[in-house]
Amino acid sequence: MKIKKIIITFVSAIAILFSTSVVSLAKVVGDKIILGAAISLTGKYSSNGVHTQNGYNMAVDRINSMGGVKVGGKTYMFDIIYYDDESNPKRAAQLAERLISQDGVEFMLGPYSSGLTKAIAPVTEKYGVPMVEANGASRSLFTKGYKYLFAVLAPANLYLDVAIRTAVELNGGKGVRIAQAFEQDAFSQDVRLGILDAAKETGSKIIIDDKLPKELNDMAATLAKVKATKPDVLVVSGHTKGALTAIRQIAEMKVDVPMLAMTHCDAAKLSKQHGANSQYALCASQWHKTLTYKDDFFTDGMTYDADFTKEFGYAPPYQAAESSAALLVFKDAFERAGSFDQKKVRDALAATNMQTFYGNIKFAEGGQNVDKPMVLFQVMCDDAGKCENKVVAPLKWASAELIHPIPKWSDR
Fold first, then answer.
1. Virtual CA dihedral for 376, 210, 52, 340, nearest 10 degrees?
2. pTM recorded for the entire structure
3. Using CA atoms, how far apart are residues 360 and 295, in angstroms rounded to an integer?
4. How far apart, in whole angstroms, are the C-alpha atoms of residue 2 and residue 378?
5. Which domain holds residue 101?
6. What's the CA gap between 319 and 317, in Å, rounded?
7. In this structure, is the dihedral angle defined by the CA atoms of residues 127, 132, 136 and 139, taken in order, positive or negative?
8. 95, 260, 365, 383: least surrounded by Cβ within 10 Å?
9. Over the chain, what is the mean pLDDT?
10. What is the DSSP letter of 260?
11. Residues 255 and 336 placed together within one structural domain of the fold
12. Strand, helix or coil at 182?
């Protein structure tokens, strides 16, 4: 969705609010259900922030065009007020306060990233504002006792768990040697904890446990250790920029490792940026277009992929898909609640049990989705250099056979 449209949406919503004598009625103005969202349009998370916004807008347009939301015998349309949180947690919290206290928003969509979601959640909880979020996976979000936070995605500690277990399975059930490098944000640190748990449970050993630099622009020191110690698996979590840096420097330094597993490499569009150098990378994903989940709005993953690509000019990463799913959850909850009373909507959200094109959604008491596993896809390129992402794990959903070990650079 172009910035021009965002501004128009925001301005029109504000105009409606000022024309209404009671600002607290901003949750529903006329036939509009107005949601609030602070997302990263600038700063280090801006690329995924745009994916998040595009996913939200895709679902709003689809739901509105297919009859909107039916509550109390009336039909309503979704609209969203957006603010740019600048990838800054303090700013995100301020904007959440503004959306609720000044703009009168009573239902929120989440920001991008666990860190920003952790900044906003105390605000929405304080005001009793239900928030459906799609991009905050840190497991610490779900241990605070929040009653108004609901996340459609699997928690962060499960992102790369399947990579370690797959490596152990390929090693005849014996533990493997793991090198890992993580950003120091809440999400990546929870991914790290998941790897530590998987290592302990499988008898594997962590031989490198490094921090990525704050700007995510150099991991040469870690890669030098990898070349020297020859681990079985290298795990990297640094959002989009970290994934791009990893592939660039692994290729430059000709680092050989049997398995490379990362987060966010679909959002990074590795093959577009780095071509065949990205081949064989394993990418943890909340969603892939080939999975067979279905719903009445986007049909299935392949249809969503085609529709999104037509609308925005690029294939949707999972950040966009899960963001669209958040709107489907809100629609379902509003209609089951039959009301815009926040407590009733909260209770309806807590009772969610549905399937979307993105996956099954059912919330545990802490607000996390407990009904949708992660998948791993592998970047695979043909002789002409055309690359595709193909699901290789879990095996029951695999659309291709995992290539393991990764061929050495000297043999490519």
1. 100
2. 0.80
3. 10
4. 31
5. 3-154+290-362
6. 5
7. positive
8. 383
9. 91
10. E
11. no
12. strand
